[in-house]
Design brief:
elongated; alpha+beta; six-stranded mixed sheet; N-acetylmuramoyl_amidase_3; 2 domains; 344 residues; 24% helix; Aminopeptidase; CBD-like_Golvesin-Xly; Jelly Rolls; five-stranded antiparallel sheet; disordered N terminus; N-acetylmuramoyl-L-alanine amidase; N-acetylmuramoyl-L-alanine amidase activity
């Protein structure tokens, strides 16, 4: 039951660092034989499950991105179209030691003109009320529906959970205007993100949109690669990336080959190089990373694979890695492909 309430008034939502993890129970209402509200060709159970899963996806992304936001251990009361009793939902949260319980619903009324967003907690003050208030604020910003305010109620899942709990009535499934939002996959995703922002703010974190790490591969001869006419293409040694590689004899001049990638987000990036190996390759080929650091690699070994040059903090936008030919004379340097992986 509401055993935490008195203590919660004394203990505000604590600040969360990325190294700490809060356990959040997401509760998509209804399910299975319980369709919840229906209206405008939609079922509440389907809408809120989709919204809850998108909320979870945002929290998972946030956990994977150490550059901002928080770290979350997400528990779902249901992840499919199954019926879970009200007590069953409470048991899932309580037995797993959740730190917060967040129930997601669509509203309904016989009067189809009823519309808007409202968010509930059991008490008007304390930790749950703080989270409730932040959810309401974020949902109004996100969906811009009528603001019906924050409220208190003795809903079963608000009473019989042992942790601060909220219940979101996102909008009215029975109202034609609201239903545009409740049943839309893209607007459901926006609602999930808004709940993530609210949770971040509740834990004292600045609202942060996490970025999923991705590969940016620039192969020789493709957009983003450049080299002078002193470099030529070859396929004489197997193990190259793509259709060929560029090669140049070493000399006492920089004349670098260059790989430029347009990065979507700032953060730490791992930078890898691919070359073909051979005994005539430079044993100390100088790669120059975007931050100016020179990394010398032995191109006589480890050909035909990605080789890590280093991890560098980079800003969003164009970032360039270079390969100079200024190294020990009598060898060749191989300019094949560069991969940027991040942000991490």
């Amino acid at each position: 039951m509401r055993l935490y309430t008195t203590l919660a008034v004394l203990v505000a939502a604590t600040s969360l660092s990325w190294a700490q993890t809060a356990k959040v129970c997401i509760d998509p209402g209804h399910g299975g034989s319980d369709s919840g509200a229906v209206g405008n060709g939609q079922q509440e159970k389907t809408n809120v499950l989709n919204t809850g899963l998108k909320f979870k996806a945002w929290l998972d992304k946030d956990t994977q991105d150490p550059n901002g936001g928080g770290s979350w251990n997400v528990i779902m009361t249901r992840s499919t179209d199954v019926y879970v009793s009200l007590q069953g939902r409470c048991d899932i949260a309580n037995n797993n030691g959740a730190n917060r319980f967040m129930s997601i619903h669509n509203n309904a009324a016989s009067d189809t003109s009823a519309n808007g967003t409202e968010t509930f907690s059991y008490s008007s003050t304390g930790t749950a009320a703080d989270l409730r208030n932040k959810i309401q604020d974020r949902m109004i910003q996100a969906w811009n529906r009528t603001n019906r305010g924050v409220k208190t109620a003795s809903f079963y899942v608000l009473v019989y959970t042992n942790m601060p709990a909220t219940l979101s009535e996102l909008a009215f499934i029975t109202n034609a205007g609201d239903a545009v939002y409740t049943g839309s996959s893209s607007w459901q995703d926006v609602a999930g993100k808004a709940h993530m922002f609210a949770l971040q703010n509740h834990y004292g974190l600045t609202a942060y949109t996490p970025v999923t790490a991705q590969n940016y591969i620039v192969d020789n001869g493709t957009s983003g690669f450049s080299a002078s006419s002193n470099w030529w293409t070859s396929t004489s040694t197997a193990g190259y990336y793509g259709t060929n590689y560029h090669v140049r004899g070493t000399a006492a001049v920089s004349d670098p080959a260059q790989w430029t990638a347009n990065l979507a987000a700032s953060g730490n990036y791992q930078i890898y190089a691919w070359w073909t190996a051979g005994t005539n390759r430079a044993p100390s080929a100088p790669y120059i990373l975007p931050n100016g650091t020179t990394v010398n690699v032995n191109q006589q070994a480890n050909g035909g694979q990605w080789n890590l040059l280093g991890t560098v903090n980079l800003s969003a936008g164009n970032q360039t890695t270079k390969l100079s030919c200024w190294t020990t004379s009598g060898y060749y340097v191989i300019a094949d492909a560069i991969k940027y992986y991040g942000p991490q």
